[in-house]
Write a structure and sequence with these properties.
The protein is α/β, with parallel strands linked by helices. About 20% of the residues lie in helices and about 35% in strands.
C-alpha cells in the first residue's frame, strides 16, 4: 500500500497545477496522483484550438513527471474511505494519505440514444481518433453550438472538411451571446463553409460500413465520416457522494477549497465554490479556473492558507475571431452592447439587479482585469453608464 502526504485524484490540468502549488510550499514530501487517462497531464485547450492550426503535439504536455510526484496512470479511483484516509482504484491498488485533493473533472453528457461511433470530444485520445478520421474522411457532423462544438466545427472547416452543425437552439453560442451576434455568427460560419441546422436535433444515428448516417427530427438526412458531440459535461461527484461529502452541482468547498471533510480538498471542474465578486456559488469548467484553483488547492493542502476569491475567465477562437469572457456570461441576462465595429470588435455587458455580472470582450484584449474590477463594483449601474467603460 502506497502512502503519500498529498494524494491527488485526477490527472488533468487541475491535478498538475495542484502539484505545482504543493511544490511551491513543500519541495520534498511524497506526492501521488491517480489519473484515469493513460497519458500524463496535458493542456486541454489545444485539442480544439492550436493542434488544428499547426501547434506541435509535444508542446501540450505539462511535464508533471519533473515535479517529483508518482503518477499512477490508467487507473480510476473507485472507493474513498475518509475515516481511514484510504483510496482504492479499479485495479485493486490501495493508497493512504494525509491530505487528499479531488480533481475528478467531469464526464461528457451523451445523447439519449447514445449509439456507438459518436465522439464526445474531451480527451487527447478523442483528438487522435478524430485526426485519424480526417485523414480520409471529408464530411463531419457536429452536434451542439457551445464551447466545444463551435471550436471543433471551426477547426475542421479550417482543415478543409465539410461540416454540418446540428443545434437545438437558434445558433452558434446562443446561450452566451446577444441575438444579433448569434445571427452574425451563423452567417459567418456559413461563409466559412459550415452548414448550420438550427432548432433541430438528432433523431436517429445509423452506420453503413465506415459511414454514419443521421436523421434529424425535422427530417434532414446526412451521411458523414464522423460525428462529434459537444453537449456539456456532468461533474464526477460519485466518489465524493459515496464518501459522504457534501455535493450540490459539484463538490461543495469553502474559501480554502476544503470539502465537508477538512483534510479533503476539491478543485477544478468538479468544485462548487463561492465567489465574492458575484456573490454566488460557481462551478467553472475552463482552463483559467483549473490552473488557478488547482495551484491554490495545492498551497492550502501544504499549509500555506490562500483563500480562493479568483473570478475565472475563459476564451475561445472561432476562425479569425476571438473573445475572452469573465463572470456570468448568460444570454438570459440583460445585455448592453458597445461595439466599436459591429460584431468584429466590442464589449457586451451582462446585467442583473443594477450590477454587471459578466463581460464579453469580443476581439478586445488585455481587459480581463478591468472587467473583473467592474464586476466587483457594488453599483447600481445603469446601461448608459457602461458605454465606453472598457477598454479602460
Amino acid at each position: 500500500m502506497a502512502h503519500y502526504r498529498y494524494l491527488i485524484i485526477g490527472g488533468g490540468m487541475t491535478g498538475d497545477a495542484a502539484i505545482r502549488g504543493i511544490r511551491d510550499v513543500d519541495a520534498t514530501a511524497p506526492v501521488g496522483l491517480i489519473g484515469a487517462e493513460s497519458q500524463p497531464p496535458y493542456n486541454r485547450p489545444p485539442l480544439t484550438k492550436g493542434l488544428w492550426k499547426g501547434q506541435a503535439e509535444e508542446e501540450i504536455w505539462r511535464q508533471t513527471d519533473s515535479l517529483g510526484a508518482e503518477l499512477h496512470l490508467g487507473r480510476r479511483a473507485v472507493q474513498l474511505d475518509p475515516k481511514n484516509r484510504r483510496v482504492t482504484d479499479d485495479r485493486g491498488g490501495a493508497y493512504t494519505y494525509e491530505k487528499l485533493l479531488l480533481a475528478t473533472g467531469g464526464t461528457p453528457r451523451r445523447l439519449p440514444a447514445d449509439p456507438q461511433g459518436i465522439s464526445y470530444y474531451r480527451t487527447y485520445r478523442d483528438y487522435r481518433d478524430l485526426r485519424e478520421r480526417t485523414e480520409e474522411g471529408e464530411r463531419f457532423a457536429v452536434i451542439g453550438g457551445g464551447f466545444i462544438g463551435s471550436e471543433v466545427a471551426a477547426a475542421l472547416a479550417m482543415n478543409g472538411k465539410r461540416v454540418t452543425m446540428i443545434l437545438r437552439g437558434d445558433g452558434v453560442g446562443d446561450h452566451l451571446f446577444p441575438p444579433d451576434l448569434v445571427k452574425f455568427l451563423n452567417g459567418y460560419y456559413a461563409d466559412k463553409g459550415v452548414e448550420i441546422l438550427t432548432v433541430d436535433e438528432v433523431a436517429v444515428v445509423s452506420r453503413t460500413g465506415v459511414k454514419q448516417g443521421i436523421t434529424t427530427k425535422h427530417g434532414r438526412t446526412l451521411e458523414v465520416d464522423g460525428i462529434i458531440a459537444g453537449i456539456g459535461i456532468a461533474p464526477n461527484t460519485q466518489l465524493a457522494e459515496a464518501a459522504g461529502l457534501k455535493v450540490e452541482n459539484g463538490i461543495i468547498v469553502d474559501e480554502f477549497l476544503r470539502t465537508s471533510q477538512p483534510e479533503i480538498h476539491a478543485a477544478g471542474d468538479v468544485a462548487n465554490f463561492y465567489n465574492p465578486s458575484l456573490g454566488a456559488r460557481l462551478r467553472v469548467e475552463h482552463e483559467d479556473n483549473a490552473n488557478d484553483m488547482g495551484r491554490a488547492a495545492g498551497k492550502n493542502m501544504a499549509g500555506e492558507p490562500e483563500p480562493y476569491h479568483h473570478l475565472p475567465f475563459f476564451y475561445s477562437d472561432l476562425f479569425d475571431l476571438g473573445y475572452e469572457a469573465v463572470g456570468d456570461v448568460n444570454s438570459k441576462l440583460s445585455m448592453v452592447e458597445d461595439w466599436k465595429e459591429p460584431y468584429r470588435e466590442g464589449v457586451v455587458y451582462y446585467l442583473k439587479d443594477g450590477r454587471v455580472k459578466g463581460v464579453l470582450l469580443w476581439n478586445v484584449w488585455e481587459q480581463v482585469d478591468n472587467a473583473r474590477k467592474l464586476i466587483a463594483e457594488r453599483g447600481p449601474l445603469k446601461p448608459d453608464n457602461l458605454k465606453g467603460r472598457l477598454p479602460a
